[in-house]
């Protein structure tokens, strides 16, 4: 009977630990999106298990009529935003996010994007683990249809890099 009692207590302790781990480490609410950033911002913070680096980029595009023969199209390549300039209806644009892990630990990469620009934005790989000494280029695409409403589309692209403080915690990156 005592053996069963200890098993139940052990299971309860494990459940409490898993709940604590999930809410404190694996799914922290780390970005305040009450307002979009106007320029690139960088913030670094940590808890007892992980270091978080958050880079927030403003993103915008002006979708214009493709009927205007004097339309000047172009993509901005400013390093402090992920703007797409002016794109005609039915057109597209592409920017690249280049990442390199030059450290000896794995890093979890999360890319989140918000705003009305998400209606016409595609990012193919938004949640992955970057191995040590690995580099990757992530395409960020704007694709419009001929009937995409004309206007300004704005939002934000957030690059979240999560690194374990201890190598023994690297396995958690796969479940975050």
Notes on the protein architecture:
β1 (41-46) and β2 (50-64) form a beta hairpin. This protein has 176 residues and is mainly beta. It has 2 domains: 1-29; 31-175, Sandwich (Immunoglobulin-like). It is elongated and about 80 Å long. 14% of the residues lie in helices and 41% in strands. The relative contact order is 0.22. The strands form 2 sheets. Strands 1, 2, 3, 5, 7 and 9 form a 6-stranded mixed sheet that branches.
CATH topology of the largest domain, anyone? Immunoglobulin-like
What does the average pLDDT come to? 84
Query: What is the helix content?
Result: 10-25%
Number of domains: 2
What's the helix count?
Answer: 1
The CATH class of the largest domain turns out to be: Mainly Beta
Question: How many strand units?
Answer: 9
């Amino acid at each position: 009977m005592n053996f069963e009692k200890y098993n139940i207590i052990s299971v309860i302790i494990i459940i409490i630990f898993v709940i604590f781990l999930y809410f404190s480490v694996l799914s922290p609410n780390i970005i305040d999106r009450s307002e979009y950033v106007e320029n690139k911002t960088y913030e670094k913070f940590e808890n007892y298990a992980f270091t978080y680096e958050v880079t927030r980029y403003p993103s915008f595009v002006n979708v214009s009529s493709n009927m205007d023969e004097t339309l000047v199209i172009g993509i901005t390549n400013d390093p402090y935003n992920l703007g797409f300039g002016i794109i005609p209806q039915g057109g597209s644009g592409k920017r690249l996010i280049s990442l390199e892990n030059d450290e000896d630990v794995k890093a979890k990469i999360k890319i989140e994007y918000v705003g009305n620009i998400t209606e016409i934005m595609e990012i193919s790989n938004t949640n992955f683990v970057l191995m040590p000494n690995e580099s990757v280029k992530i395409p960020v695409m704007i694709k419009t249809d001929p009937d995409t409403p004309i206007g300004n589309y704005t939002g934000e692209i957030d690059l979240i890099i999560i690194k374990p403080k201890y190598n023994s915690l690297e396995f958690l990156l796969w479940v975050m």
